[in-house]
Amino acid sequence: DVMDFDKCKIVVNKLSKDFKDLQTIYPCISGEPLLHPDMVKIVDLIRSKGIHCGFTTNASMLSRQKSRELVKAGITSLAFSLDTTDKKKYEYLQYGGDLKTVEKNILDFKNEFLKHNNYFSATINFVVSEENENEKDIFLKKWKDHGFNVSFSNYCNIFDRNRPYKEEIEWGPQTRQPCWALWQAMYLNEE
To answer: Which of 24, 50, 119, 132 is deepest in the core (most CB within 10 A)?
Structure first.
């Protein structure tokens, strides 16, 4: 399910009114945001309130036209999920996906963004797994050379009952600090 635009408008209007320190809204935190039929309108709505807007995409649907529309709407940041530099591995990990097209879409977005802004800051998120751990250095160099931040995180099977849980970590009121950004960013989804 996705939040329809009218409901989104009510929520964004309320957030912008009630949370004066809110700096960023990230619409659609699970799934592919560009599947939402009104994502450009949502970005435009959020930006019309003076609030930054960004999301993470796999870039498979990020055409040059969609990049233009997002930039025109005022998108302030995008992060990209990309887990390999190998064409065949990408086809396997993204079931039939086209790595060359996705890389072109990412670079086209950067170029379109720079036509209208005097800065560019975007991150490419790479989830490290057994299939791609040998690619980290190549991946880092490739995307750093294109001016992107690169973030690595380890694959974690959320269904694995043997993973460490928060209860096993030693922390409590004497060591835990409150989050300074608690009311400065908001993730917006149907729930």
So the answer is: 132
